[in-house]
Amino acid sequence: MIGTMARKPVAREAVLDAFESLLIEEGERAATLDAVARRAGVSKGGLLYHFPNKEAMISVLLERLDRLLDEDLAAMAHAPEGAAAFFIRSSVWADTPLDRVFVAATRLAEVAHQETLRRMAAVQASWLELLAADVGPAMAKPVLYMGDGLYFNAMLARGPGGPLPEVGPDVESLLTALERLRG
Amino acid sequence: MIGTMARKPVAREAVLDAFESLLIEEGERAATLDAVARRAGVSKGGLLYHFPNKEAMISVLLERLDRLLDEDLAAMAHAPEGAAAFFIRSSVWADTPLDRVFVAATRLAEVAHQETLRRMAAVQASWLELLAADVGPAMAKPVLYMGDGLYFNAMLARGPGGPLPEVGPDVESLLTALERLRG
DNA sequence: TTAACTATACCGTCCAGACGGTATAGTTAT
DNA sequence: ATAACTATACCGTCTGGACGGTATAGTTAA
Q1: Is the pTM here over 0.70, yes or no?
Q2: Is domain A8-52 given the CATH code 1.10.580.10 in the classification?
């Protein structure tokens, strides 16, 4: 074996998870290198051993996003209930790995991180495409925006560790709306 | 006369406008006291004369938001086209004073500024109420989310001074969707 | 032995805010 | 009328802390 490691790099994933959590719970400003290292239970030196700088950390987080998003798009494309209903349902915060990276990425987009903005725009385009195939090009944007609005409101509702708001009824009304939009 | 001012405080409004612009165009991180003062054409000392600290600046900006929002809610309540159509149309970025404060406030909410989050939640509730009166309680949230989604996407689309994306067709499709939701 | 760390000290930069000073318009007492 | 004074509206500089990143010497586990 050529790439043999002396020890398994446990810190690397821990750091990435901590970064993600801090972005979600406290926003980008709180996700300093020191804070991330502290939450990961890793020394700052250890963090910088794996990620030479903050950009590298972001970059790997975006790779994680891409990977989970590809899986999600595939699932959406083949969802029995239809792409649109799948999209609405998956727009609600469920603390899945994809939800977590996505919100974390949103925090980066919020502070105008260019590469993140590019990827988010690409995702929106992919979603729109699948929605158009399901509900038609005219109603694709309304559906997309309903889902985005759900996300947007969940974001605004976040407090410091407050309880998750109840959105079940919201999803139901959105699905009802979706049926009406289908005509 | 005792309350008379020796000079008119021209810097005060200039500072507030500069703060707003920086929040909109470059995000919260870029809106430092130095940057705000520079853009306002005011010294840092002058800025801090009017606003003893950054919180005070935010606070006055939120007052501006409240004032313009009250006017908007009144207009929405009495809109001939109906509250929902008014809401959709006003959800598109048009560079009005209200649009500007609102987006500026969104930037603050993004970095988890608590007071801002509270006010934004209150606004959403007010909008929801008026929408429910127009389209019924069941379809109020779908409509609200469509408008929010429009805003959300406009936010993500911002680059550094890039051209405003064309959203006219989007609004039309949303208004069509609105009619279908009305049933 | 070597990769995967810990621990700590340090540097340059940026930022919020404090502070002292200055300019000017209005007020008052003479 | 005007000198003396006050209140307001600024300007320019400085400080203390945080942050991203570097460096380095030592420790642990496969």
Answers
A1: yes
A2: no
